[in-house]
Amino acid sequence: FEAELLTGIKIATLADAKRACDALHQMGVPNVVITSARIGDDASTLHLVGSELCARSGTKHQFAIGFPQLDGYFTGSGDLFAALLVARHASLANEFAGLAGALAKACELATATQAGVMAATRQHQMSTGIAADPDLPRGSRPSDMVRGFELRIIPSRHLITNPTASFQAFAI
Questions:
Q1: 59: nearest Cα among 107, 105, 98, 17
Q2: Of 117, 16, 112, 21, whose CA–CA distance to 65 is shortest?
Q3: Coil, strand, or helix at residue 27?
Q4: Which terminus, N or C, of the chain has the lesser number of Cβ atoms within 10 Å?
């Protein structure tokens, strides 16, 4: 959504996503991550598309990660993903010593943690009977319902401290 607004490029294919990444690189952004892109006709799968631009060589490492769409409403998922990605990328910078791949690995770990936390949240919602009618306007949702949409971060802290990359990046 944001990448489309910033670049004016409608993202419907991996080629479109690569062009949007290139446009953002041209704007001076060295690391680009497009989350939750719907690529093609498969409504059950979303894609993360990333591009890492090496400042020294000018080479790009572009990749994608496919992951299943999880139905539901989740409060704070974008904030959690951004925090996970920044933390993982910073911790991997020395390991990769400026070589391409740190962003892709950080995205794999952040996506795995995010998916686990969201699955735990969805399971909690189902077990407590908290369900969101997709047609219910956000402003009319009762506060106890909204609290039920908050991510189950504390009960899922093991996924944050010891993530297992369950989704693999592939080169595009």
A1: 98
A2: 112
A3: coil
A4: N
* Among candidate residues 82, 76, 79, 105, the one with its CA nearest the CA of residue 92: 105
Give the chain's mean pLDDT.
86
* Ramachandran area for residue 12 (φ above 0: left; ψ -120 to 50: alpha; else beta): alpha
DSSP 8-state secondary structure symbol assigned to residue 153: T
Given strand 45-53, what is the order of strands in its sheet? 31-37, 45-53, 60-68, 170-171
**Between the CA of residue 166 and those of 69, 94, 99, 111, what are the distances in Å?**
14, 23, 23, 8
Q: Are 9 and 23 in contact (CB under 8 A)?
A: yes
* pLDDT tens-digit map of 2-53: 999 999 999 999 999 999 999 999 999 999 999 989 998 888 899 999 999 8
pTM over 0.70: yes
